[in-house]
Amino acid sequence: QPMNDTFVLDLNASNPEWRHVNVSSAPPGRWGHTLSCLNGSWLVVFGGCGRQGLLNDVFMLDLDAKHPTWREIPGVAPPVPRSWHSSCTLDGTKLVVSGGCADSGVLLSDTFLLDVSMDRPVWREVPASWTPPSRLGHSMSVYDGRKILMFGGLAKSGPLRLRSSDVFTMDLSEEEPCWRCLTGSGRPGAGNPAGAGPPPRLDHVAVSLPGGRVLIFGGS
């Protein structure tokens, strides 16, 4: 049963407790979506799978507002509906969405950007002469300003779908951004030639740390 509730855990409290946030205009229930922090208390939800199938909608919420209210952002020319994609945010105003699983189980390799600060936001596909293999269940993190890092996932390899441990990066500050394979073979399932990297996985979590570090935890 897809859910659409919102909870907060304040770790600054002496005795942290989960608090259910009473929000207005909650988005339709969903799973396989992404939730990203834009700037301070602003959050943005994209896509996932709901009762009626796959979604490609965008909702924003100011968690610190007196009466938190989800607001749909009607972006022009949105990417195809999807779930198990990855997303991150840039500059406190831009949502980046990559890959995932589309209708009929098709894996995706595209990357889209949406500036939610615009009066009439328009989705823009980031053109690239080469893209990493299509995948779902991967992670995407921002580091060093406007660089994004993609790790892992269940990736397409010919007729197969294999867990990946490869790392790809893209610098979105470049005039013509391009994907680069940072570690691994670039071929899903092949592992890391150096032998010291994490095993292939999907459905993990990743977080950027100060000093240009990215931490990976868990997965399957």
From TrEMBL:
Protein's name in the database: ZTL
Gene3D superfamilies linked: Kelch-type beta propeller
InterPro entries: Kelch-typ_b-propeller
One annotated GO biological process: circadian rhythm
Domain of life of the native organism: Eukaryota
Taxonomic source organism: Hordeum vulgare subsp. spontaneum
Pfam families documented for this protein: Kelch_KLHDC2_KLHL20_DRC7
Gene Ontology cellular component annotations, sorted alphabetically: cytosol; nucleus; SCF ubiquitin ligase complex
